[in-house]
Amino acid sequence: MIMYLLMMLTAAIVSYGATWGARFAGNRLGLFQPIRSRDMHSTPVSRLGGLGIFSGVLVALVVASNSFFVKDIFRNNDAPWGILAGAGVIVLVGVADDLVDLRWWVKLIGQSVAALVVAVWGVRMTIIPFVTESIPLESEMLQIIVTAGLIVTTMNAFNFIDGLDGLAAGVAIIGGVAFFLTAYWVHRNAPLTDFSDLATLLTAVLVGSCVGFLPHNWFPSKIFMGDSGAMLIGLLMASAAVVSTGQITSGLYDRANGIPTIIPILLPFAVLFLPLLDLGLSVIRRTARGRSPWSADRGHLHHKLLDIGYSHRGAVVLMYLWTCILAFGGLAFAIFPWPVILAIDLAATAVMAVVTAWPYLRQRRPGRTAGMPE
């Protein structure tokens, strides 16, 4: 645990400093995009924050490859470097989009290239997990296609929720911590001689980089992570999920104090539920209107929260709370009796549903007229 936390701290320190440098460079050189109608800010802000996050990831992985315990992850294993190469590609694509606003199809090609780099030289899906029985993917080409598709989907999901100051970084931190604790707990309690794990390291580094970035991005934001940062988070989160899913058939999860095999299947979806929900609703909404699924609009979940009366910070905190319930509620199934956790999760979900809808319900309560003071 100590070495993972040290790598997390390394990523946080580097990310904080590098983000400050990106802020300075962006402001000094005037690297801003015009303010759009859907934007929540009224003054130009640099979108180069992804460079700070990537710097934290890069330095932490290089340090890890030469550090006690975690360096075993890199021994005779090119997967970390394949993931890092794919991350470098997507950061370049994202920075280009943040500076010149690429066409959606150009960005999709860039995302596909980055995902293919990870799938060919990094990690791959070898099974499609189901609750009853997993489906093996025998074809190498099919493994690459499924892995690349998962990574592209996750990158777009995180890119879609990156619309409020601190939202994407905070969701990544909360979900990443839940993922990190699960991966670490499984390996620490399994009868293994080597407890080092790539998924645990990736989530530790990701959380650390986002922690270093968040102080610069909290409302009112001094810098945005841009597409480069949001897509990088999605790529790393998806890569960690692929690593964990590949460990199901090894029996690792079965041997870790009886942890249910379904946990590594459900947890990534629980962590990514809000981004994936927003992505799905956006595609349906835009397609129904005859528009491209990648065309921008002001209909995301965070926009709806603002529309019903939440403040900027209030909407972000509410999304944090939902992520906590989903991520840690899923994690709890691995440790405590499922009937108890299910009851607690349902109760927490019901309370949060009322809290979420409260501003809207208050506006529509009988006897309240427009303009009436609160």
From TrEMBL:
GO terms for molecular function: metal ion binding; phosphotransferase activity, for other substituted phosphate groups. GO terms for cellular component: plasma membrane. Its cofactor is Mg(2+). One of its GO terms (biological process) is cell wall organization. InterPro entries: Glycosyl_transferase_4, PNAcMuramoyl-5peptid_Trfase_CS. Mg(2+) binds at N159, D227. The keyword Transferase applies. It is a multi-pass membrane protein. The keyword rRNA-binding does not apply. It comes from the Bacteria. This is Undecaprenyl/decaprenyl-phosphate alpha-N-acetylglucosaminyl 1-phosphate transferase. It comes from Arthrobacter oryzae.
